[in-house]
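Step 1: inspect the first sequence and its tokens.
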Amino acid sequence: MLLCLSVMPADAQGLSFGVKGGTTRSTLKFDKDNFFGKGHYGWFIGPSLKVGLPLGFGVDGAVLYDQREVKIVDEQTMKIKQISIPVNARFNLALAPGAGTGLYLAAGPQVAFNVGDSEFKWTSKDSYENTFQLKKSTFSINLGAGLYLLKMLELGFAYNIEMGNTGDITWSSLTDKSNYKSSDETKVKTWKLQATIYF
């Protein structure tokens, strides 16, 4: 974000600060057939910054507290708490010249840092002891669109796709002590409904 601001042209259309918040729906996929994640709703909130550029282009970013729950096998639930930093390139399409209302498209990277519990343990019905350890940080991509009203309010949605693994899971038999550790396809995929108010 600092780099974008440093190269912002003199005729940029403005700098806006605001607050972004919303709700999420997440699912977690494991690479072992009998391990799967059921999505739960979560929420996020934090300060936001938007930079307007010529020809309808722009950049926005935010620092968000993001909390969500994911239900895994045997009705166990993980509560994931993160500080997420999304930065998006965006394109605004005005519905009427000078009305301050239109549509926007946005896409960009996001880095998230775990600030909650990093390890979850449970014993499954088939006598396996399971441990899921979250990574300290994750990198993902946001794709989104929405509507802006009077240059003050934005309503939109986004789809977040993790590019790396959310964490590693280990499951071991309580009888023969065998274990298996997975690091493939343990990714959280998230839909977001969001609103931003700019001051």
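Step 2: inspect the second sequence and its tokens, then contrast the two.
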Amino acid sequence: MRDFLHTNYIGRFAPSPSGPLHQGSLVAALGSWLDARHHQGQWLVRIEDLDTPRNQPGAEEQILQCLRVHGLEWNGEVVRQSDRLLLYQTALDQLSQKDLVFPCGCSRKEIEEQGGIYPGTCRGGIPEGKVGRAMRIRCPSITLQFDDRGFGQEFEQIAQTTGDFVLKRADGVYSYQLAVVVDDIQQGMTQIVRGADLLSSTARQLFLYSALEKTPPAYLHLPLVLNSNGQKLSKQNLTPGLNHQTPIQNIQLALQTLQMALSAPVEEAPSSSLQDLLAWAIGHWNIPLHNPQNSVWGADQREFRHDPNHCPSDTPRSAS
């Protein structure tokens, strides 16, 4: 087996233990794994278990076993966010010392009534009748620009799209935005490969990197997988977990979603063994580490329809 530790590439897969992995999860896991392995880097696994009401007993072991069954081995020990609360509080304290954080007493319903964009109600102090429980960060009116390795140049004004966003919720749970940035900094991530549903979070996370005076990683967002109703495959949509008895077929379907990232059609991939299939995919991964000029996915390729009855090895490649 090739030595995957020759470069300073560090990537990760970070699922939440709210249920088993499904086909959409596999696309994200496989895409991040292939990118790391193709570039001879490390691939870490982190369990994002902060949102305890959503965690399901046994889900973490289900997820890890699913990765093993599909040949997606990882480097090092598995990390859990629930063991890292002190790191998040330390970062929150650092931002507070810079006067970037303020308490907020607004409810989620009130924010939704404002179109989902925080209007700055508590920026200058808690209004009478409210109690400051959540913690938000002040967002300046600037345009954040970044180059995504898959979708090209992206722009966002977070002051207009979300407003001052939450770093610690009213129930005391640290927000995803804060925790993921702190984790990626602490673990030394150089490349983030994940689904396009998180593309809209990237500007907020880049802002946090800047506020914490840290260098951000590069980003590569992968197409989402949709069901027959046009919904993203998710646990909330009752998407079934992966069948552990058909790992080769599952990987083939995931590679079909990632076809634009491969230098050869999936139909040409060997199907005699899982190891051979994954080795072929590593060798044909075709997204460079730095791709600021050209996008891999077109605007019409952010989503991919999932047909569980479709097997790429049985279908002729389209001429388009």
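Step 3: confirm your contrast with the notes below.
Confidence is low (pLDDT under 50) at residues 1-6, 302-320. The longest helix spans residues 23-38.
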